[in-house]
Amino acid sequence: MNMMPSAIAQARSLRKGGEEDAGHDAGQTDFLTIRGLEAGYAGTRVLKGIDLSVFKGEFIALLGSSGCGKSTLLRTLAGFAKPDAGEIRVAGRDVTRLGPDKRGMALVFQSYALWPHMSVAQNIGYGLKLAGRAKADIASRVGELQMQLGLGGLEQRKPAELSGGQRQRVALARALAVQPDILLLDEPLSNLDARIRLTVRHEIIALQRRLGTTAIHVTHDREEAMVMADRIVILNEGAIAQVGTPQDVYKRPASAFVAAFMGAENCLPLSIEKSGAGLHVHANDLCEGASLPIPSNPLVSGPVEARFRPQAVELTPHQPQTGTEPGGDGAVIFKGRVEQTSYPGGAWRHVVSLGSHSVVADAQRSFAPGEAVNLRVAAEDLFLFSPA
């Protein structure tokens, strides 16, 4: 399910009690600090100098495609993988070389990793038993977590007798039972169907906020990261591509890679010229000339890569621009022809050809294949990047 930006903002506003995302406030104290972290396997360098600071009680999402290093980073934080360089500090304490049980962290695995021969209550209380806690304390803590996570009445069941959502709740309860300083979540929702995933997602958010636990959540699901996280860390090939609030990375992507990963997969070549406070887009076979404000990211005059999302397009029947002056309404108008039309729900989806290029554009009405169209993209929805 693709959640529109307005729905995402509403969900986050409800979670935050209506407050705006503040980002990484310089007045707060870093709780988890990662500096120059490098790690790999069998001679292959996976993490390439990771630097990251996390506040106490903050929910961080590590977002990226398969193989980008996000799970390696999580396992290195947990102590299950040894770094080749760098350091990890929790509340000022160096935990880089400490064992997993000495770091004050708990990891929830993607596969749940529950003991099949143990009951729900025994699985939840396992870490407390290893720590030598009294039986009465264990029973009290287990009962409390069962109620918080909707597991009441299931304490005697074995994992095989539970649904996927219930098994995930047990794994989460087991991790929280030891009251970790940092909760590590390794794609814990990926094995659940879409409906249950939404339910468990909101349960994790509510519980994390109520307990004030610092959480690091690995996911490849963009919507999941947008809804759950205070800040998103986007990884690419073992390095951090951008760190910011969901609004930051969605509305102000720092690179073409981030823009594409955050949904701006349409890509067209343009040529620009900077002058004063403005930006001139040269007319070509793909678009009409336009005048735009200069965006915040650095650009140089010459060829640029233009990226935009399908829902950012205003699709209309083709109408040539009148006059010779570039458009001054803060938008670029591309010229194309519809190739395919489909209805995935919510809006009509069109594949539009522009010369040798193709883009995807959504509209509230359908345009027939072969129809000439204009694609208007407002300046704030158009992400421009100079070649590296």
TrEMBL record:
* Keyword Nucleotide-binding carried by entry: yes
Q: Which residues form the ABC transporter domain?
A: 32-262
Identify the PROSITE patterns for this entry.
ABC_TRANSPORTER_1, ABC_TRANSPORTER_2
The entry lists its GO molecular-function terms as:
ABC-type transporter activity; ATP binding; ATP hydrolysis activity
User: What are the subcellular locations of this protein?
Assistant: Cell inner membrane
Taken from the record, one Pfam family name reads ABC_tran
Q: What is its main location?
A: membrane
Which SMART domains does the record cross-reference, listed alphabetically? AAA (SM00382)
Q: Which InterPro entries match?
A: AAA+_ATPase, ABC_SmlMolc_Importer, ABC_transporter-like_ATP-bd, ABC_transporter-like_CS, Mo/tungstate-bd_C_term_dom, P-loop_NTPase, Transp-assoc_OB_typ2
Topology relative to the membrane: Peripheral membrane protein
| A Gene Ontology cellular-component term | ATP-binding cassette (ABC) transporter complex
Q: Where are the transmembrane segments?
A: none
Q: Where is this region: Disordered?
A: 1-25
Q: Mind listing the UniProt keywords for this protein, alphabetically?
A: ATP-binding, Nucleotide-binding, Transport
Identify its protein family. Belongs to the ABC transporter superfamily.
Q: Name the chain's protein.
A: Carbohydrate ABC transporter ATP-binding protein (CUT1 family)
Organism, per UniProt? Breoghania corrubedonensis
